Amino acid sequence: MTTATQNLLPGTDLALEALPKVSLHDHLDGGLRPATIVELAAEIGYELPAGATDAESLGEWFATQANSGSLVQYLTTFDVTIAVMQTRDALVRVAREFVEDLAADGVVWGEIRWAPEQHLQQGLSLDEAVEAVQQGLDEGVEAARGAGTSLRVGQLVSAMRHADRGLEIAQLALRHRDTGTVGFDIAGAEAGFPPSRMRDAFELLADEFFPVTIHAGEADGIESIRGALRDGHALRLGHGVRLLEDITLVDEGEMTRASLGRIAEWVKDRGIALETSPSSNLQTGAIAAWGDAMEDHPLDLFTQLGFRVTVNTDNRLMSATTLSRELRLVAETFDYDLDDILALQLNAAQAAFLPVEDREALMDTIIAGFEEHA
C-alpha cells in the first residue's frame, strides 16, 4: 500500500523511505492495495463488508477490524483478501503491486510470505499458485528496476498450522527452491497448534538444508518458542516477543539486571533473529502482558540485551503501515537515531535467507546508502 506521506527520522529532515531497508516478515495477503481489492471483488462478484465499497472506506475498515487486541479476530480480516486472490491473474497482480510498494518504500531485499493452500478455490494447483506469485514478483522487480530502483525478493512458502498439510507444503517449497522460494514458514492460529504437529515437514526441510522461520511467541508463550526451535529447527522467530517470558528483570538500586533463561540465552547466543512487527504486535495483543502502548514493546529491551532484533510490517494493509512508518514509530518511541536504524537493517540483512556472499553484499549496500544520507 503506497503512501504520499514521508516518514522523517525524528529530529531530522531525512525521509526514512530514502534509506535502503530489509523486510523479513511481510504477508502477501496482508499487503493488498484497497483499490485493488475493490476492483478484484467487482470482477468476481464478491460482496465487500457493509459500508466499505471504495478504497478509502475499505482501508479504514481493515485498520478498525484489525485493531482488536486478539490474533484470532485480527486473522478474520484475511477472509476478504484471500477471497479475491483465487485466480492466476489476481495472484500475479497482487504480487506485482506488492513488490512495487516495497520498492517505493526503499526496500532492497524483501521476503514475502504466504500460504498457497489458501488460494486453490478456483482450481489452481499448489504449484500453479506458486508460479503465479513468482511471475508477479518478477514483474514487480522488473518494473522497479525500469524505474531506477534496484531490489530483490523471495517467497517464503507458509503452511497453515491447523490444516495438517505441512509435509505437502514443505515438499512444495523444495520444488521451487531454485526458482524464487527461499524459505518455509508456518502461520495461522498459534495456540493449540505447535510445530510438533508438522515434525515430519521440519525433518524433511532439515534434511534438505532449507531455511525455516516460524511464527512463535506472538499468540502463545515460551513453550511455543521452544517448539519452534526444537521441533521446527527455526533460524528465525516470527515476532518472538513473548521470549520476554524467559527473561527476569531485577532492580538493583539504579541498575536493572537481566537474567536470561535457557531458551532466551539460546536465541541470543546463536543470533536467531526476532521478526518483531511493532504495530501488529499491539493490534493482536502479543505484548498485552506488558502494556498496550508502543513504549511497552520489548524490542528495545531485546536490543539492549544484544538480541538480533529486526523491525517489520507483518501486514501493511491491516496496520495501515509501511516499513518506513514502523521504523519512525520505533525511533520516536525509543529515541533511536540513524545509527540505531542502521543496526536494525544490518540485523535483518544478516538474518536474510540468502547465501553468505549475498548477505555481505546486501550489508554493503545498506551501509553505503546510510552513509550517503548521514
From TrEMBL:
Gene3D superfamilies for the chain: Metal-dependent hydrolases
Pfam families: A_deaminase
EC class name: hydrolase
Record EC number: 3.5.4.4
Cellular component, GO annotation: cytosol
Cofactor(s) required for function per UniProt: Zn(2+)
Gene Ontology biological process terms in this record: adenosine catabolic process; hypoxanthine salvage; inosine biosynthetic process; nucleotide metabolic process
Positions of the Adenosine deaminase domain: 20-367
InterPro entries recorded: A_deaminase_dom (IPR001365), Ado/ade_deaminase (IPR006330), Metal_Hydrolase (IPR032466)
Domain of life: Bacteria
Any one GO molecular function term: adenosine deaminase activity
Keywords associated with the record: Hydrolase, Metal-binding, Nucleotide metabolism, Zinc
Stated family: Belongs to the metallo-dependent hydrolases superfamily. Adenosine and AMP deaminases family.
Protein name per its UniProtKB record: adenosine deaminase
